[in-house]
Amino acid sequence: MKTNYRLALWAAIPLFVTLVSQPLLAQQATFRDLGAIAAANENFAGATAIADNGKLIGGYTRSNATPDGRGAALWRGGLYAHELPGFATQNLWGHVRAVGPDGDLAVGSTTKDNQPRPFFWTPALGVRELSLAPSFLGGEAMSSNDRGSKIVGYGNFMGLLWNRPVPLTEAMVWDAGQPTSLGFLGNGVWSRANDVSADGRVIVGESDLNTSLGEYVAVMWINGLGPLKVGDLPGGYKRSRAVAVSADGSTIAGWGSKQFHPFLHRMFRWTRTGGMVDIGIAPGHQLAEATAMTPDGSVIVGWGQVAGSANRMPVIWDATNGVRDLTVMLEASGVDLTPWRNQFGQLFMQATGVTADGKTICGFGNLGNNRRGWVATLP
């Protein structure tokens, strides 16, 4: 059979264009507004955590059930799933703080008797309250290990600070649902636990130093022992917070102060071999705070502020590129963030969670006059 090579060549061109264009399109970043509860006619929501596999996002939203507050909420597969039921019918204030790696667990707090109460959620059990010792008024669950057998957070109590009665917090761990107080550093009077390793051995957070300057430092608990100082950045106030720990407990992310200023913080990364290292700020920014880290400790996300402005930007760090402004990366990849800018062209956005591969990031920001959650995927 004779072959018409000219016809075959022209027939192959569309296939060639398709094969070439698909990888090119795959290199574009994506960015999406997660939305709120359409039936509630509300536009207030925020994303604060994402599963390692990206299948579940947790956060908060406002609905008809919470007109004066907000309720803990979940998005499954990037689509709004539902608001989690609270323990009260009025003055509800809920928040999902962390979700499990496979998207089958969430922890956070919701209101009961006008106090936040820690909870965990699974598809099978729904929302379940975590118990607290009688001396605690309320509390919040901040994170859990992979299996959900150890949940960490803090309890609220009335204590003395500078000889005055004030509401304070103490770091907590719930082991198989049983609460244990984790104590304070030295003469400190308050502490918080923010994250826990996959096997539950390492817990990280912060504890105060009970000084007149209101200083506090990043700490860790190892196998129930502690708190032990993670450290603080040299210079400035002693103020640092550990917000995330890697799956194996060898790497910690957080932020600290390097100057005598209450807000100009910088992100740090701590390792067993290298200690605490200042990983800097994005170009043109004046501060950076970490909020989340990948399980292997290779990618850290958070937020920064542009020098001399009120712009709050999501940032991302890796060892190769340092700290980068995520909005610059998204816009360079073709994402239009114009609707998220106010009348002065300013952005208010914050990254709060990242998937295990470091490619998908969630967060919240101002969309017009509304607070909304968002999710972005990098090429």
What do you see in this structure?
- The structure is a single chain.
- The protein is mainly β and 379 residues long.
- The protein has a domain at 31-127 and 348-379.
- 8% of the residues lie in helices and 50% in strands.
- Strands 1-28-27-26 form a 4-stranded antiparallel beta sheet, with no helix packed on it.
Low-confidence stretches: 1-26
The major sheet is characterized as: 4 strands, antiparallel
Total count of helical runs of at least 4 residues: 2
Shape: globular
| Helical fraction | under 10%
The tally of strands reads: 28
Instruction: Summarize the helix and strand pattern as letters.
Output: HEEEEEEEEEEEEEEEEEEEEEEEEEHEEE
Strand content: over 45%
Quaternary status of these chains?
Answer: single chain
Mean of residue pLDDT values: 86
Helices and strands in order:
Layout (H helix, E strand, L loop, with lengths): L4 H22 L3 E4 L11 E6 L5 E6 L9 E6 L2 E5 L11 E5 L6 E7 L2 E8 L3 E4 L8 E7 L5 E12 L2 E12 L2 E4 L9 E6 L5 E7 L7 E7 L2 E7 L8 E6 L5 E7 L7 E7 L3 E6 L4 E9 L5 E8 L5 E7 L3 E4 H7 L16 E6 L5 E8 L2 E8 L2
Antiparallel strand pairs: 1-28, 2-3, 3-4, 4-5, 6-7, 7-8, 8-9, 10-11, 11-12, 12-13, 14-15, 15-16, 16-17, 18-19, 19-20, 20-21, 22-23, 23-24, 24-25, 26-27, 27-28
Give descriptors for this structure.
about 375 residues, mainly beta, 4-stranded antiparallel β-sheet, about 10% helix, globular, disordered N terminus
Give a nutshell description of this structure.
With 379 residues, the protein is mainly β. It has 2 helices and 28 strands.
